[in-house]
Structures are given as structure tokens and as C-alpha cells.
Amino acid sequence: MFPGTEEGPEDDSTKHGGRVRTFPHERGNWATHVYVPYEAKEEFLDLLDVLLPHAQTYVPRLVRMEAFHLSLSQSVVLRHHWILPFVQALKARMASFQRFFFTANQVKIYTNQEKTRTFIGLEVTSGHAQFLDLVSEVDRVMEEFDLTTFYQDPSFHLSLAWCVGDARLQLEGQCLQELQAIVDGFEDAEVLLRVHIEQVRCKSGNKFFSMPLK
């Protein structure tokens, strides 16, 4: 299942847009993240094709996310030999969790904890309680492995675009209102931004593990 060396992926900032790793990479340490994947449909990308250029008139350095997801954990560090037991523990907890629908249609600006990156996201407005229940299950696994649990009172969201630095000043206020108006006025936005969750995914280093919900 884990071919080759036990080293995690090498840390080359040129490969991730100049972003700064928030914890040092060490041999045998794997950055690990639990999330709900979102498979972007063509109509969703059409909406993004309107939103992003508008936001770029305020912050030109914004770039589209390469993939879309909603986080259920912080990024934590796992030793290589803990990956499989960690994933098995997650699968056991996810197996009895019912699939559900959520809606994410509220534009919101986020930064990471260190304020080194800014994100434009769509906040979950329906399905929040189910996300909290999911996080509760993930947090129990984190505690079993003595890892950091998720944020208190989290804002679940789908990140659309990001940039280096703290760009909240430029994006909040007028820009945010205009982006929300674009979302509200987009054809079939109500249907487009209502999503059925069928699985949770875990990424550890360059490995991906899928955990289907019931």
C-alpha cells in the first residue's frame, strides 16, 4: 500500500505557489488532512469564471483552487506507521454516518491562522449540524492519536480561490457584497450549490483514502 521510501513529499515552495509550510517537514512525517471532496460540475466552474475575474479587479494575485473540498480537520502530522491505523479508525467511525445534503451559498473571506494566505469561500448555510457531527467523529480519532482537534465553532466552507498574504481589507465590504450578488443572481445557483455528501476523504502525504458514508 505504501511503496518506496518512508519519506513524505519533499517541500518545494515553487510547487505550491510560494505558500509557506506551517510546520517543518521531517523524514517520516506526513501532513494529514480529513475533508469532504467536492466534484466541481461544469456549471459550478461557470460560476467561478464570473466570480474570480470580478474578485481579481480588487486583488489581481488571486488564483483558483486546483481542487475543491470542505475541511473536517486541521492539517496534522502523522508518523508513517500511524497512517494505516489512523485511516482504519476513521473508516470505522464514518461507516455508520448517514449521507446528507448541504448548501453552501454564502460568500465569505477567510485567512489561515498565520494570516499568510487568504481565501474566498462559500460558507455552508444548510447542513451545518451534520458537519458538526462529522467533525465530532473525526475529533475522536484525532484524540485517540493525540492530534489537534478541529476549530471551536467552525465555519464550514468550500474555498474557491486563494492568494498569498492577508487580503481581507481589499476583499471584505464592497467586493464581498458584489460577489454575493453574483452568486444570488446566478442561474440555478440554488440547485447548483446544494450538494449530496457520499464520502469523506483523508489525504496523508501523497496518499488518498476514501471513506464512504452509509
From TrEMBL:
Record-listed E.C. numbers: 3.1.4.-
The record's section on Pfam families has: HVSL (PF09749)
**Top-level EC class, please?**
hydrolase
> Mind telling me what this protein is named?
U6 snRNA phosphodiesterase
State whether it acts alone or in a complex, and with which partners, per the record. Answer: Interacts with PLRG1, CDC5L and PRPF19.
**What InterPro entries does the entry give?**
Cyclic_Pdiesterase (IPR009097), Usb1 (IPR027521)
Please tell me the species this chain comes from. Answer: Rhinopithecus bieti
Signal peptide feature range: none
The entry sums up its family as follows: Belongs to the 2H phosphoesterase superfamily. USB1 family.
Q: What are the BP-aspect GO terms? A: U6 snRNA 3'-end processing
Q: Per the record, which residues fall in region Disordered?
A: 1-22
Please tell me whether the keyword Chaperone is annotated for this protein. no
Report the locations given in the UniProt record. Nucleus
Nucleus among keywords: yes
Assigned GO CC terms: nucleus
Q: Known HAMAP family for this protein? A: USB1
According to the UniProt entry, its GO molecular function terms are: lyase activity; poly(U)-specific exoribonuclease activity, producing 3' uridine cyclic phosphate ends
What is the annotated role of this protein in its UniProt record?
Phosphodiesterase responsible for the U6 snRNA 3' end processing. Acts as an exoribonuclease (RNase) responsible for trimming the poly(U) tract of the last nucleotides in the pre-U6 snRNA molecule, leading to the formation of mature U6 snRNA 3' end-terminated with a 2',3'-cyclic phosphate. 3'-5' RNA exonuclease that trims the 3' end of oligo(U) and oligo(A) tracts of the pre-U6 small nuclear RNA (snRNA) molecule, leading to the formation of a mature U6 snRNA 3' end-terminated with a 2',3'-cyclic phosphate. Participates in the U6 snRNA 3' end processing that prevents U6 snRNA degradation. In addition also removes uridines from the 3' end of U6atac snRNA and possibly the vault RNA VTRNA1-1.
UniProt entry keywords in alphabetical sequence:
Hydrolase, Lyase, Nuclease, Nucleus
Report which reactions are catalysed by this protein: a 3'-end uridylyl-adenosine-RNA = a 3'-end 2',3'-cyclophospho-uridine-RNA + adenosine; a 3'-end uridylyl-uridine-RNA = a 3'-end 2',3'-cyclophospho-uridine-RNA + uridine
Q: Which residues form the active site?
A: H69, H157
**Do you know which SUPFAM superfamilies this protein is assigned to?**
LigT-like
